[in-house]
Amino acid sequence: MINRLAIVGVGLIGGSLALALKQAGAVGHVAGCGRNQKNLDKAVQLGVIDSYEESISDAVKGADIVVLAVPLGAMQSVFVQIKDVIGDATVITDVGSAKQSVVDIASANLGPRIGQFVPGHPIAGTEKSGVEAGFASLYQNRRVILTPLDSTDPAAIATIDAMWRQCGASVEYLGVGHHDKVLAATSHLPHMLAYALVNYLSRLNDHEEIFNYAAGGFRDFTRIASSDPVMWRDVCISNGDALLTLIEGYKNELDQVSAAIRDADHEHLLQLFGKAKSERDSLIGL
Amino acid sequence: MINRLAIVGVGLIGGSLALALKQAGAVGHVAGCGRNQKNLDKAVQLGVIDSYEESISDAVKGADIVVLAVPLGAMQSVFVQIKDVIGDATVITDVGSAKQSVVDIASANLGPRIGQFVPGHPIAGTEKSGVEAGFASLYQNRRVILTPLDSTDPAAIATIDAMWRQCGASVEYLGVGHHDKVLAATSHLPHMLAYALVNYLSRLNDHEEIFNYAAGGFRDFTRIASSDPVMWRDVCISNGDALLTLIEGYKNELDQVSAAIRDADHEHLLQLFGKAKSERDSLIGL
Nearest-CA distance from A168 to chain B in Å? Predict the structure, then answer.
C-alpha cells in the first residue's frame, strides 16, 4: 500500500497512473503538483488527485513515492526543487520517454540519494494529453521499462516494480543507453516521420484538397502527429543523437524505394513490400 | 437494378462491392472471374458471387456493369481480353488507386467503346486482402472518386455513380491527373513511408528487441505496411513520377527536423510539432 503518492505533472500519464492505483486500492492519498492551477482543480474534480500543493517541495514531503511525469525539459528544474526535501524512505521515479538525460540530471542533483531514484518509462499513452485524457486502464497489459543504475536501491526498484504491476502493466528491465536506442527506433523516429508528413503535405499547394481526400490509412498513420509538441521537442533534445542517426538511415531506406520506382524495378519493389508486410504481420502476430 | 454484374478480381475491394450491392438489393446475378480458382470457390461459398467463369470474356458477356478490381499491373491483360466482347449496353469501371495508367490502357484498347469506361477509385480498404477480408459496409460513408474523360458517356457515369451510392458511398469527381497527384500525397506516399520504416527497423541489429518494444503508436503507424505488395508495386509503377517528387520533398522535410534536432533549436522543434498537431487535429475535426 502506498500511503502517500506525489504526482508532479498531472497529465495523461501521471493522471492515469493515479486512477489505476486508486482503482486497484493500492494508494491512500494522492497529492498533485503542476504549473497550471486550472488543470490541478480539474484533476481534483475528476478524482484523479486528492489534493494539490503549489510548491513541489510541499507535494513530495512525506510521500512514499514521487512520480515525475513532467516533460523531459522540466526535469532539471524539478530535481532542483525536490533534492533537499526528499525523505529517507521516499522513492522517486519518472516516466520520461528518454532515460539518459533524466539519469544525468538525477545523478547531478540527488547526490547520495541517487539510490532512491528508479528511472522508468511506461510504453503507453495516446495522442491526447492533459488530465481529462487520463483513464485507469491505460497501463493494462502494457509494458513498463525500468532502467535502474548499479547504485539504485533494490528495495526502491521493488517498490516501483510493484506499483506498475498493480496498474496491470508488465515490468521489464533495460540498460539506460539500450532503452534510448530501442525507443528511438520504435517510438521517437515514427513520431518524427508522422509530424514531418503532416507538415510536408500542409505545405503543398493543394493541401486542403489533399487532406480532404485522406482515407483511414492516412488518419491512422498520422495519429501520433497529434501528440504533445512540448513532450516531443524535449524527447528530440534529450535523445537527439540516436534520432539523427535513425533519420539518416531511414532516408537511405527511402532512397532504395525511390531507386526501385525510378527503375520500374518490379521485382525489387515486390521484394521490399513483401518483406515489410511479412515483418509487420509477424509483429502483430497474424 | 443491375441485372448482371461482372467482377474481375474478387478480392477485398471487388468482393465488398458485391456484398454491399447484394445487401442493398441492387443487383441480380454477380459473376466473378479471377486467376485463382480456390479463391473463386471461396467467394461463391461466402455468397459474395453467384457464379464464376474461367474466361473473362464469358464473365463479362451480357453484364450491365463490369468492375475491374485487379491490381493495376493486370489491367492491360484484362482490357485486351474484354475489348471485343463488351456489349453496347455494358458499362465498365475500375477501382485502381492510380488513374492515368488505366485511362491510357483503356483508351488504347477500347477504341470507339472508350465512352463506356468510367474510371473510378473508392477511397476505402483495409490492410487486409482477399475475398475473406471483404464486408458489405466497407464503402459506407466513404468517398469514391470518379475521373471520367470528356468522351465518357454521361449515362455510363450516372450508372457507376448510382452503383457506388447504393453501397453507402459519396461520389466525387476529379480530373485524372489531379486524382493521381492528390492520392500520391494522401495514400501512396504514406504507404511508402510505412513500408520503408518496417524494412529499415528490420535491418537494425537489435530488430527483434525493437519490434518487441513497439507500442500502440507504432502498430497504427505501420498498419498500412501490411497492405498487399502486388497492389503497391503496381501503384509505384503506375504513379511513379508523382511519388518520386513527393518522396524527395518529404526527405527535405525530414532534413528540417534533423537540422532543428542537431542545433537543439527548441523553438523550431516546438513550431514544427505544434503546426503538425494543429493541422492533424483540424483534419480529424477535433
Answer: 16
Are B239 and B104 within 8 A, CB to CB? Answer: no
Q: Which of B145, B26, B36 is nearest to B10 (CA)?
A: B36
Nearest CA in chain B to A213: B186
Nearest partner of B149 among B187, B105, B183, B186, judged by Cα: B105
Neighbours of B89 (CB within 10 A): 12
Single-letter code of the amino acid located at A98: A
Half-sphere exposure of residue B222: CA atoms within 13 angstroms, side-chain side: 30
Per-residue pLDDT tens over the stretch A271-280:
999 999 999 9
- Which of A127, A102, A98, A125 is closest to A114 using CA atoms? A102
Which triple of cell numbers denotes residue B167? 453501397
Q: How many CB atoms lie within 10 A of CB B132?
A: 15
A38 touches chain B (CB under 8 A): no
Q: Which domains does chain B have, with CATH numbers?
A: 2-174 (3.40.50.720), 178-284 (1.10.3660.10)
The torsion of the CA quartet A92, A94, A99, A102, rounded to 10 degrees, works out to -60
Distance (Å, rounded) from C-alpha B196 to C-alpha A4?
47
3-state helix, strand, coil in chain B (%, to 5): 60, 15, 30
Interface of B with A in 212-241 (CB under 8 A): 213-230, 232-233, 236-237, 240
The answer to whether B247 contacts A269, with C-beta atoms less than 8 Å apart, is: no
A155: Cβ–Cβ under 8 A, 6 or more apart, which residues? none
B 124-183 → A contacts, CB under 8 A: 124-127, 142-143, 145, 181-183
Whole-complex ipTM: 0.91
- Type of residue found at B224: I
Q: Taking the C-alpha atoms of A197, A202, A205 and A208 in order, what is their torsion angle to the nearest 10 degrees? A: 120
Q: Is the CB of B281 inside 8 Å of chain A's CB atoms?
A: yes
How far is B124 from B13, CA to CA, in rounded Å? Answer: 8
B66-106 confidence digits (pLDDT tens): 999 999 999 999 999 999 999 999 999 999 999 999 999 99
B interface mutation test: which of A243, A254, A278 has the most B CBs within 10 A?
Answer: A254
Instruction: Tell me the pTM.
Output: 0.91
